[in-house]
Write a structure and sequence with these properties.
It is a single chain. The protein has helices spanning about 5-10, 10-25, 30-40, 60-65, 80-90, 105-110, 130-145, 160-180, 190-205, 210-220; strands at about 50-55, 70-75, 95-100, 115-125, 145-155, 225-230, 235-240. With about 240 residues, the chain is α/β, with parallel strands linked by helices. The chain has a seven-stranded mixed beta sheet with strand order 3-2-1-4-5-7-6, with helices on both faces. The longest helix has 19 residues, at about 160-180. The chain starts with a helix and ends with a strand.
């Protein structure tokens, strides 16, 4: 995660608007988290140990802890403001979470050099990394996981051709404008929405990969399996097993 990405998410205004914006820009977020949690092959009463790469406002960690009430999570984020908001969201469940602020390219250090985690997961965070950094982070994930441990990622990708990417982006913009319904001037029409998205991508240093690149990095990082569990346009739930 670049320093630019970290700083973008440490702005108070960005944190306050994050969840509301996610509902507008990523209406499949709840579905993606459902898929991610369903893929994990653990009994719900197991004392699972997990790592969240980019905890954000705590949405995925909260859903994980609700599903696995005996689980604990090491939650990492580069933005202290996001961690503060996650702690508020989690309420009493925050007692089962160890928070660490820092760049998750230093995952081993931030996880306290712990090992034998049962699972690692991430949502809308790893696309801030370039391919080399993402592979490096996932190698660290492999090191942290126990044998047969799982990694699940809910994130965005890009199309493998300019023509398809252009059409997907058109659909993306149209969906945001429709969901906003004229209530948000940032998304009043296609032009203003496109400008907002372009500025956001530049400010947050987005670097999404193609589906093929995403799965190849999982394999190259050391996962014995790599799969796409759910895909719609530019949103993907992928992962693998150590």
């Amino acid at each position: 995660m670049t320093q630019k990405s970290i700083e973008a998410y440490d702005l108070a205004q960005r944190v306050q608007s994050y969840d509301a914006d996610m509902e507008l820009m990523h209406p499949n977020r709840a579905k993606m988290v459902d898929v991610a949690l369903q893929v994990l092959p653990f009994a719900t009463d197991m004392p699972i140990r997990a790592v969240d790469l980019g905890v954000g406002t705590g949405y995925l960690t909260q859903r994980f802890l609700d599903r696995f009430p005996n689980a604990t999570v090491t939650a990492i984020d580069g933005a202290r403001a996001m961690i503060d908001l996650a702690q508020i969201r989690l309420g009493e469940s925050a007692a089962r979470v160890k928070f660490a602020a820092g760049d998750f390219r230093e995952l081993r250090r931030l996880a306290g050099n712990a090992r034998n985690f049962d699972a690692a997961f991430s949502a809308y965070a790893l696309h801030h990394l370039n391919a080399s950094d993402k592979k490096s982070v996932l190698k660290q994930v492999v090191d942290l996981l126990r044998p047969e441990g799982w990694f699940i990622n809910a994130d965005i990708i890009k199309a493998n051709s300019l023509e398809i990417e252009r059409r997907v982006q058109q659909l993306r913009v149209a969906g945001i404008v429709k969901r906003a319904g004229g209530r948000d001037k940032r998304f009043a029409d296609a032009m203003s929405t496109r400008k907002f998205l372009d500025d956001l991508q530049a400010n947050e240093a987005d670097q999404p990969l193609t589906l093929a690149e995403d799965l190849a990095i999982l394999r190259d990082a050391g996962f014995k399996t790599a799969a796409a569990f759910w895909l719609e346009y530019r949103e993907l739930v992928s992962g693998g097993q150590k």
